[in-house]
Amino acid sequence: MPNRRPARYWHAAKKKMVEKITAAIDEAYHIGDTLVFLHESSPENVALDGLLSENPKIQEILQKIGS
Predict the structure, then answer these.
(1) Among 3, 38, 47, 67, which residue has the least CB neighbours within 10 Å?
(2) Contact (CB, 8 A) for 62 and 53
(3) Beta-carbon neighbour count of residue 66 at 10 Å?
(4) Global pTM value
(5) How much of the chain is helix, strand and coil, in % rounded to 5?
(6) How do the domains of the chain map onto residue ranges?
(7) Is the dihedral of CA 18, 21, 24, 25 positive or negative?
């Protein structure tokens, strides 16, 4: 099932996530100039507990997020 949400939705979600990650790192470590790298993997390249995307838990998660 292809993702039907517009790119602007994902950009806003990623922006919010990166802001929260950066704030948490800064609060914990006070290092400043924090770089956050996002690496997105297609579902067939995701594994949980030693099982690739056929793992029922992964299927459930993918259905929830609409992938």
Answers:
(1) 38
(2) yes
(3) 10
(4) 0.61
(5) 55, 5, 45
(6) 1-36, 39-67
(7) negative
